[in-house]
């Protein structure tokens, strides 16, 4: 039977939905099967997630981003009508019936309450009735800003007393959200506000916590970056015509500058993420903004006010700047009116902005006491690895590994950002190859500061000392010193030599280089470890319900039976290293003994070899994909297989099959894939897609660090 947690806000603007979704993420990533239920749909209010359409925001987002399909919430007006007619029991029966659709297949159900509203006095009691009828324990959510501990004590005590009748549910804990949120100055956009410097020590100074009346389950700090809307959102909310599209849908507004001064007095405001607001006839400011964009500063955009359009000759002069992706909006309103509207923008996160919602969920999830909740609810960790659990465990293992990862594409903007983020999160000791001043300038144009203790190696200062070592490694191929010196001009080769000479634990490249540029030096200089016949690859496929491993989808065109068996064993070991319990399916067009032919015979022989070499692993084949993945198909096609219907590692017979399948699943099911991760090398080297996002690079660095720990533990 599912345990229930009712999440009740103490006031308006607590960020209730963000907390509910973050709590869902926190439990999900530690393997708990968690459901989500929102009994009533409430009109949008400032401070809550909203949907541009008519569907409830919470349900829309959960449905879009997970395997869950929560029932449609009951309209609040309908609930009020039933209450006015004295049909409260009928209403609660409906709520319980909807709840049962969620609870049957999960361990915990998170129930999102209603936001209190002075004009709707029945709402607080409705929260109590729902919590009581569903047998839920209550978690209060409060946004204290800079409230004194005494004031917060009073607020929490009052809210808890609503649930204080003998038959009412218990309040077990409190989540403080947006801690340190500043008061908004008059006419100042919220996104310009800075964190309050003095935040009370609520944990020790509030009596409700120090007396252990309530458990403080988390303090989520106010983070101004979570208020950063896309320029698209600004255009939509203010109904601004778009003069130039640019990167309207991806650029974020982190600061607003209203410009009426001369250029020398406003140039310092042209920073990454700044939305420049100026009258449309200020050609000088428009040109200054264009110059900043050409200098690599990723401004959010330009908003022209007052029904004034710039001269076409000015826009033509700005042509190259517009090619950098700079969006331009226009409005009939004057500058003062626009400043007021920007100051009044709701901090709500649209459900069509999954990146920002993901950030909000992570901000909540990483600050919650999930361990205490698990113990309180007497939950055992499930043998299940969801995508959030995979990412969380990957980060934790990378931190524990503490490995030195070299990044030869040291001045590539995404790589620089990823290195800084890994450094901040302590995922790895990153080493950038390049000129420090140049890398610092790249970081600055992206809105980052290069940390003083982030290691940068100037290739010109170290290249010479690797020449002789490289000659020794390639002597059997007749490599001469002058040839080695020429090859070391390539920073990927230089970085690979650092790994080969045990000066780094792994390498990540490929943001601007081809796979061959990354893999070839590794094969030549690092080489395969003693237990590997071939170098192969795997992708981690982050399906909504679990993580699967696909191999080999990137390296070997047509492996023989011995090599295919080796790929199966390598893939199982990789799965195990990253927390996926390996159940290996050797994929073919035929299941068991039902088919014949060279291709299926190869898979059959590879299965036999792999089972013989590693009897401790669950390996079976040949299996068709549906027999390996779907329990109902497995019952009819392979009823005696220990793998069929529950495979976690899929080994494909050739590159054509593997690459096609992984791309079909990735694109058709909108699945995130991490990889390819190379396996079989003496030390890890991993390739990136040239279209990789910053987060892709961060996770690949973390993967490489964990691989390096695995190699070290194996003593290879």
The SS-based structural class is: alpha/beta
Major sheet strand order: 2-5-1-6-7-8
- DSSP strand count: 24
Mean pLDDT: 86
Q: How helix-rich are the residues, as a percent range?
A: 40-55%
Global shape: globular
Strand portion: 15-25%
For the sheet with most strands, the description reads: 6 strands, parallel
Q: Provide the gyration radius in Å.
A: 29 Å
- Terminal CA distance: 48 Å
List unreliable stretches of 5+ residues. Answer: 45-54
Q: Tally the helices: what do you get?
A: 30
Task: Describe the fold and architecture.
By secondary structure, the chain is of the alpha/beta class. It has 30 helices and 24 strands. Helix 1 (16-28) packs across helix 15 and helix 17 (387-401) packs across helix 30 (694-714). The two termini are 48 Å apart.
Short recap of the structure:
The chain is of the alpha/beta class and 716 residues long. Helix content is 42%, strand content 16%.
């Amino acid at each position: 039977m599912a345990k229930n947690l009712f999440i009740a806000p103490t006031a308006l603007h607590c960020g209730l939905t963000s907390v509910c979704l973050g709590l869902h993420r926190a439990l999900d990533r530690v393997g708990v099967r968690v459901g989500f239920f929102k009994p009533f749909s409430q009109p949008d209010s400032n401070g809550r997630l909203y949907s541009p359409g008519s569907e409830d925001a919470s349900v829309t987002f959960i449905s879009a981003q997970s395997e869950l399909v929560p029932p449609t919430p009951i309209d609040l007006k309908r609930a009020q009508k039933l209450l006015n007619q004295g049909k409260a029991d009928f209403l609660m029966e409906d709520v319980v019936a909807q709840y049962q659709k969620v609870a049957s297949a999960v361990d915990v159900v998170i129930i999102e309450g209603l936001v209190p509203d002075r004009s709707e006095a029945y709402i607080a009691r409705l929260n109590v009735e729902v919590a009581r009828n569903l047998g839920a324990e209550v978690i209060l959510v409060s946004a204290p800003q800079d409230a004194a501990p005494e004031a917060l004590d009073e607020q929490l005590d009052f809210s808890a007393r609503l649930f204080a009748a003998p038959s009412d549910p218990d309040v077990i804990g409190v989540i403080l959200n947006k801690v340190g949120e500043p008061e908004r100055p008059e006419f100042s956009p919220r996104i310009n506000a800075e964190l309050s410097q003095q935040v009370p020590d609520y944990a020790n100074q509030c009596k409700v916590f120090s007396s252990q009346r309530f458990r403080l389950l988390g303090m989520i700090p106010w983070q101004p970056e979570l208020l950063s809307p896309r320029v698209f959102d600004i255009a939509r909310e203010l109904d601004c015509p778009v003069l130039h599209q640019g990167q309207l849908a991806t650029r974020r507004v982190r600061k607003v500058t209203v410009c009426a001064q001369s250029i020398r007095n406003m140039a310092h405001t042209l920073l990454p993420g700044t939305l420049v607001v100026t009258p449309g006839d200020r050609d000088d400011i428009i040109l200054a903004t264009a110059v900043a964009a050409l200098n690599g500063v990723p401004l959010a955009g330009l908003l022209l006010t007052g029904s004034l359009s710039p001269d076409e000759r000015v826009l033509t002069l700005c042509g190259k700047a517009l090619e950098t992706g700079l969006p331009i909006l226009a409005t009939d309103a004057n500058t003062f009116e626009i400043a007021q509207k920007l100051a009044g923008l709701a901090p709500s996160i649209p459900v069509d902005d999954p990146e920002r919602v993901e950030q909000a969920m992570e901000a909540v999830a990483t600050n919650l006491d999930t361990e205490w909740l698990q113990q309180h609810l007497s939950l055992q960790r499930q043998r299940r690895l969801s995508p959030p659990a995979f990412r969380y465990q990957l980060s934790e293992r990378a931190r524990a590994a503490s490995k030195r990862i070299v990044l030869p594409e040291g001045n590539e903007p995404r790589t620089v950002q990823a290195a800084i983020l890994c450094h901040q999160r302590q995922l790895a000791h990153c080493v950038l190859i390049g000129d420090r001043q140049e890398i610092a300038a790249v970081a600055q144009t992206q809105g980052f500061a290069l940390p003083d203790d982030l290691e940068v190696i100037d290739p010109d200062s170290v290249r010479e000392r690797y020449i002789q070592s490289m000659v020794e490694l390639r002597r059997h191929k007749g490599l001469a010193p002058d040839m080695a010196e020429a090859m070391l001009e390539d920073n990927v080769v230089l970085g690979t030599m650092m790994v080969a000479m045990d000066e780094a634990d792994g390498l990540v490249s490929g943001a601007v280089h081809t796979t061959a540029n990354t893999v070839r030096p590794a094969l030549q200089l690092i080489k395969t470890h003693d237990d590997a016949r071939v170098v192969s690859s795997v992708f981690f496929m982050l399906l909504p319900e679990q993580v699967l491993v696909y191999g080999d989808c990137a390296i070997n065109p047509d492996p023989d039976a011995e090599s295919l068996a080796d790929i199966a064993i390598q893939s199982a070991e990789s799965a195990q290293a990253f927390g996926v319990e390996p159940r290996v399916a050797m994929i073919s067009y035929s299941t068991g003994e039902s088919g014949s032919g060279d291709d299926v015979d190869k898979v059959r022989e590879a299965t036999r070899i792999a089972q013989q070499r590693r009897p401790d692993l669950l390996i079976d084949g040949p299996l068709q994909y549906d027999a390996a993945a779907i329990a109902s198909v497995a019952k009819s096609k392979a009823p005696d297989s220990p793998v069929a219907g529950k495979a976690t590692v899929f080994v494909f017979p050739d590159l054509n099959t593997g690459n096609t399948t992984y791309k079909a699943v990735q694109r058709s099911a909108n699945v995130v894939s991490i990889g390819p991760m190379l396996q079989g090398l003496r030390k890890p080297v991993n390739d990136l897609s040239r279209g990789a996002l910053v987060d892709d690079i961060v996770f690949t660095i973390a993967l490489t660090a964990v691989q390096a720990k695995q190699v070290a533990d194996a003593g290879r």
